[in-house]
Design brief:
- This protein has about 350 residues and is α/β, with parallel strands linked by helices.
- It has 2 domains: about 130 residues, Aspartate Aminotransferase, domain 1, CATH 3.90.1150; about 220 residues, Aspartate Aminotransferase, domain 2 (3-Layer(aba) Sandwich).
- It has 12 helices and 12 strands.
- The strands form 2 sheets. It has a 7-stranded mixed β-sheet, sandwiched between helices. It has a 5-stranded mixed β-sheet with strand order 1-11-12-10-9.
- α6 links the parallel β5 and β6.
- α2 runs antiparallel to α9, α4 packs across α5 and α10 runs parallel beside α12.
- The N and C termini lie far apart (about 50 Å).
- Bound molecules: pyridoxal-5'-phosphate.
């Protein structure tokens, strides 16, 4: 064994790596573990990408202006309110780097998106995981100011629960705390309302979006932030110069322009979710009411990990989430199941019946 780790920052040596959901090589697997869209993106996206390959000898637009113009139009803001990134994970990284210094603090609810912790650790910062209260609502502790608290990450809808915090509560949170609040809206296209309008009410509220879930473009890598232009100006200094490429800019701009494709897709997924939830309940799962393209299924009568394993053995991949160990204490475990096509969900339910029956 070499001793190369002595050269690395201790934070990096000690941190647990963020583990994304598995991406199996085999084509036969029914993949319900990373909340991808089961449907392809708008066919116009492919055309736009092919067209973009005509100019690959040139650097891309560092600010992805074509995309910002379409996004600004969609939200009724100016393009200066929009910052683009290599997936919304890149945006979350930029935000952490810009706002949270070493030994400062970042707050997040628990259980939620595990990447936020990783971002704090890379930065040499601390994270405060604050347990959700009943029904995945924010507990009073979440509103309490703390020393060196520099940023709050609030996924809304939340993962893995699929639940939402209402906008009055977000505004109240912003006025209680002396730091910016990032509302991570990765799943909001499946939800009844979004928080972009809150930015005008409190400029410390920022909203992140991704094209990975609702637009069926997880493979393209494109996300963005909507925030007050003054904040966007500072964040431009932090981002990599070319953090979105010519192909992703072309594809994402076209995808965002095709709102009717998005709506059609979302309504198919919501219909499938509507069929899936009662059947999971019949099979003995407790299913939290979801505003997303996945559901959070738990049970009290038997452990869920063997169910996950049995599904996997039969080629059906869901996400087993273990929230039993954390600084915030145990929350238990569960299965986060993405809403696939009707056929995929029927196949999953059939295998589940066999496993549980
Ligand atoms: C999927 C997801 C993201 C990241 O999406 P990108 O693919 O990086 O754009 C961000 N936040 C949450 C809560 C997610 O589930």
């Amino acid at each position: 064994m070499s001793d190369l780790k002595k050269y690395l920052r201790p934070e990096i040596v000690d941190m647990a790596p963020y583990k994304p959901g598995e991406q199996p090589g085999a084509a036969k697997v029914i993949k319900l573990n990373t909340n991808e869209n089961p449907y392809p993106p708008s066919p116009k996206v492919r055309e736009a990408i092919v067209h973009a390959t005509d100019r690959l000898e040139r650097y891309p637009d560092p600010l992805a202006t074509s995309f910002r113009i379409v996004a600004a139009d969609l939200f009724g803001v100016s393009p200066d309110h929009v910052l683009c990134g290599n997936g919304s994970d890149d945006i979350l990284t930029i935000l952490t780097r810009a706002f949270v210094g070493p030994a400062e603090r970042l707050r997040l609810p628990y259980p939620s998106y595990i990447l936020y912790r990783t971002l704090a650790q890379i930065q040499g910062a601390r994270f405060e995981e604050i347990r959700f209260g009943a029904d995945f609502q924010l507990s009073p502790e979440f509103f309490v100011r703390s020393d060196k608290l520099r940023l709050v990450f609030l996924p809304n809808p939340n993962s893995p629960s699929g639940t939402m915090i209402d906008h009055d509560t977000i505004l109240q949170l912003a006025s209680s705390l002396d730091c910016p609040i990032v509302v991570d809206e990765a799943y909001v296209d499946f939800a009844p309302n979004h928080a972009v309008g809150l930015i005008a009410k409190d400029p410390r509220i920022m909203v992140t979006r991704t094209l990975s879930k609702s637009y069926g473009l997880a493979g393209l890598r494109f996300g963005y932030l909507v925030a007050h232009p003054e904040i966007i100006g500072f964040l431009r200094k932090v981002k990599d110069s070319y953090n979105t490429d010519a192909i992703s800019i072309a594809g994402a701009t076209t995808a965002l322009s095709d709102q009717s494709w998005l709506k059609e897709n979302v309504s198919k997924i919501l219909a499938t979710r509507g069929r899936m939830v009662p059947r999971l309940k019949q099979l003995g799962f407790d299913v939290t009411e979801s505003h997303t393209n996945f559901v959070w299924a738990t049970r009290s009568d038997r452990p869920v990990k063997p169910i996950y394993e049995a599904l996997k053995a039969q080629g059906i991949l869901v996400r087993y989430m273990d929230y039993t160990q954390s600084t915030a204490g145990s929350w238990g475990d569960g299965l986060r199941i993405s809403v696939g096509t009707d056929g995929e969900i029927d196949a999953m339910l059939m295998v589940l019946e066999g496993v549980l029956g």
